[in-house]
Amino acid sequence: MATVIHKNPKTLFDPTPFAFAHSTIGEGDGKYVFISGQSGGEGLEHHLSKDFRTQVRYSLKNLETVLAEYQLGVEDVLKLTILIVDHDEENLKIWSEEVHKVWKNNEFPASTLIPVPKLALDGMMIEVDAIAFMKKSK
User: Which residues form a coiled coil (predicted)?
Assistant: First the structure.
């Protein structure tokens, strides 16, 4: 890789105190965008709802915000990793319903869902990271 660029959208909370960037990109034959785990935190205050569905919606909205920094959309996502606290079948149903609303064409990226006992902050129920690809023409 010749160049690595880090981006933190101004409309999301500042992650630098926590030693990560919202996204990085490495340039090669194409450009791969590595997006850090996006929680279901709302706004600059990173408010975490106690409702799982609300956190799922905001984790996907936050992912879309980072993608937009590169003029990308969900169709450019190659891989998702989903971490869910106290995962069960109901959470999977909610996750699937909300993902269908975002990937309207039903062309989903590869994904891995990992049940976990806890995430970085108290109250976080979900975290979604992604790898996207930016074609040279973009």
Answer: none
H helix count then E strand count, the chain: 2, 6
What pTM, to 2 d.p., does this model score?
0.84
Tens-place pLDDT, residues 35-46: 999 999 999 999
CATH classification of the domain holding 120: 3.30.1330.40
Per residue in 95-123, pLDDT (tens digit) is: 999 999 998 877 788 889 999 999 999 99
Angstrom distance (rounded) from CA 100 to CA 95:
9
Task: Specify the number of domains making up the chain.
Answer: 1
Q: Which residue, among 44, 24, 42, 20, has the nearest Cα to 33 in the 3D structure?
A: 24
